[in-house]
Design brief:
CATH architecture of the largest domain: 3-Layer(aba) Sandwich
CATH class of the largest domain: Alpha Beta
Distance between the termini: 41 Å
Mean pLDDT: 88
CATH superfamily of the largest domain: HUPs
Largest sheet: 4 strands, parallel
Strand content: 5-15%
Number of domains: 3
Oligomer: single chain
Helix content: 40-55%
CATH topology of the largest domain: Rossmann fold
Length: about 500
Amino acid sequence: MSLKVYNSLSRKKEDFKSITEGHVGMYVCGPTVSGESHLGHARPYVTFDVIHRYLKHLNYKVRYVRNITDAGHFEEEGREAEDKIAKKALLERLEPMELVQKYTNLFHWAMNEFNTIPPSIEPTATGHIVEQIVMIEKIIKEGYAYEANGSVYFDVEKYNTDFSKIGMPYGILSGRNLEDQLDTTRELDNQEEKRNKADFALWKNAPPEHIMRWPSPWGEGFPGWHIECSAMSNKYLGEQFDIHGGGMDLQFPHHECEIAQSAVCNHKTMAKYWIHNNMITINGRKMGKSYNNVIKLSEMFTGEHPLLEQAYHPMTIRFFILQSHYRSTLDFGNEALKGSEKAMKRLWEAYQVLLKLDEIEDTQAVVLEGEEDIDAKVNTLLAEFDEFMNDDFNTAKVLANMFELVPIINGIQDKHIPLNVLKVETLILLKQKLKVYIEDIFGLKQEQLGGNKLDSVLQLLITIRKEAKSKKDFVTSDKIRNELTNLGVLLKDDKSGETTYTIQ
RNA sequence: GGUUCUGUGGCCGAGUGGCUAGGCUGAGCUCUGCAAAAGCUCCUACAGCGGUUCGAAUCCGCUCGGAACCUCCA
């Protein structure tokens, strides 16, 4: 049973074999930090976090590189006007790095909320200007780029002609051919500098008002949109690495351009497997700035957005993403999110019950007819976890199996099902596997809001209530429970007379 | 217009040609001092029309609808 991944390049599921045994190099396109991250951004970073975690689970040593795009022309919302008053004092002027820092911090905050493991290396575009310039010079030297008025463009047509011969035409990833694009490319600035409409910028001459600028062999300017990923992946992962990931919307032109740039420099395909996650949609439409339909992550967490009926916990969103396959679109909706919230809670509570299960004394356990199959069923469900993950990271199916285990776990807790229907080794495996999958691979967690002191106080209240109940003083017992409910602490009496609480 | 996808029950979503995931919601029952939780049971599906097949949600064709990309975009 080996890992299979869907490779966008071949449009097929392929057996995953890393280039260097035991090691995986993975590059994922990170955010452009010119604005606050929104719900759509959560998809790739949660998806690739799970992939990262799973590869580690398979005992690969993973170098996970995710860039921060902090170079380009940035404007903060609402500060545009200020920016244009160039004569103002330095401190009043928009400092690009200040902006970039602000949104980078916000991004990191959100990623932490989602419990994602930070990448091994998180290089910034501005920190790798030199590497990008060196790469551009190499492309020029190889004859696939030309300079015009202080800008440098990639010669797509020449590349396509030459590299088609070795099976790497321009458009190999997205399935486009160059002729189609010549007719459809729209008019852009400085189009007249290009030899061909499909050519893309490697380096751009900075007009006087442009604040982000660096010296280069072609004058002061800034790097083009695609070169950073080629330069940085090459630097940290080598000429050829295992996985290149990102959103489907980056396939063209971004990844296509990366492939071309790297191919010219290294004469090989940069990545073996291309993995693309699909979009989060809202009313069937991609969530994106240009559609004006974004819900920022900070808004998701607080519920402060006209489309939100309530706040959603980061773990709810993480769970929501895991419930679908990463290559399908995922439609946002309050009903769906609320469903995930409840489901996640149910799963987590069953998991907590499971962890305490061997403390239950199983006195007169009689295994009834039909129940002897349960052990086999549990083993099958658990074995399928790996099978489903190996099949292109099918987290949705793994979760479905987990939910088939939930009634069994709860049934044992409620004593509908005797504990000894499960062999000792099955119970051990069940605990171990759920822990690995829920916590280590899926990265789900539940905050321990309480802490020791609160727990002691609650235990005290529970004891008092229990005493009241035993005296049939339901006025007191209900008062305790109702008041606690108002404070967001739910009490539950289980079959054995024990009371547990959950904090909302 | 081109490229690539897609259409599953009230909602979100898995689905490798035969064994008709799963979650949420709704209905009923059990348990319970009452709750809550839990357990059990149930109702709504595969856009339409053809074709291939012993058999199709799954393959093929057509029709209709939706999306992404072709411009920065996760």
